[in-house]
Amino acid sequence: MILERDPPRIVTAAPLVQMHGVNKSYGPVVALRDVHVAVYPGEVLGIVGESGSGKSTLLRMMNLEETPQSGSYTLDLPDVDGNLFDLDRFSRRMLCATRIGIVYQNPHLGLLMTHSSSGNVAERLLVAGERRFAVLRAKATSALAASEFPLERLDAPPIELSGGMQQRVQLAKAIALEPALLLLDEPTTGLDVSVQALVLDTLKRLQQDRKITMVIVSHDLGVIRTLADRVMVMRRGEVVEAGLADQVFQDPQHAYTQQLVHAKL
Ligand SMILES: Nc1ncnc2c1ncn2[C@@H]1O[C@H](COP(=O)(O)OP(=O)(O)OP(=O)(O)O)[C@@H](O)[C@H]1O
After folding, report:
1. How many domains in the chain?
2. Does the keyword Nucleotide-binding apply (predicted)?
3. Could you tell me which residues come within 8 angstroms of residue 195 by beta carbon, excluding any fewer than 6 positions away?
4. Which ligand 1 atom is nearest residue 217's CA?
């Protein structure tokens, strides 16, 4: 059962995430063209668009896995300054490990498939400096519980788990350090519809309870509709439309968005 979406929250704070003028090409292929993004604290930004429109590239940029040819990226956090694209590798890694969580569509990208599920989550805590075994175990268990992972499977490696459970382990790992920003790249794509609905329920509940700022990428408008407060529509590396989710879905302005919305109906 999917929970109803809340009405859009009223935005009063400065954006947590700001990207300006981001351009990225892979050889002759333009993946992102002059992309601007603002994500406000506590909101869920949904990014939609057809395959190859640049959604995943943009999310990987937010996780500092990719560097653009030009553009800037800032996070409005007390101890984080300047353009994050200028950070050295070590600083990027520490920032991502401690302040940004990510869930990939493919669990092999986010998890060590043959380590225990609790060990996967504990590894994130180890990177942040926690060394006490009892604390690691307790915090990993708590993150897995918040992700509604069945706790009798704590010691099972992801390779032995269902797709839905693997995504819950990724989610637990992503939220273990209470990140300022949670990135979700097609987190339910490939799951059975019923499992997809349960994982979406968990995400919705987490967002409501913890007010985590989220960016979710999906080609599935239903997923975006369920979770997002605001939507950005991408096509061929460009943002063609952005606005409150209800407005964009009910009254799409750009011909491409109209096509997407009507194709879904
Ligand atoms: N590492 C890479 N090397 C070369 N080209 C790439 C690379 N990553 C992305 N691209 C290209 O950049 C464009 C945008 O890709 P991206 O994966 O961001 O799109 P997407 O909207 O996430 O698509 P999908 O929904 O299929 O994942 C595509 O043309 C893709 O082929």
Report:
1. 1
2. yes
3. 162, 163, 164, 188
4. 22
pLDDT in tens, 51-110: 999 999 999 999 999 999 999 999 999 999 999 999 999 999 999 999 999 999 999 999
Q: Is residue 200 part of a domain?
A: no
Strands 230-235 and 44-49: parallel
**Domain span holding position 149:** 100-179
User: Residue 12 domain-assigned?
Assistant: no
58 within domain boundaries: no
Residue nearest to atom 25 of ligand 1 (CA): 51
The rounded percent of the chain whose pLDDT value lies above 90 is: 86
Rounded to 10°, the helix 163-175/193-210 angle is 20
Ligand 1 centroid to Cα of residue 30, in Å, is: 9
Residue 108 lies in a domain: yes
Q: Per the structure block, which two tokens stand in for 107?
A: 């669990």
Which residue from 47, 55, 239 has its CB within 8 A of the most atoms of ligand 1, so it is best to mutate? 55
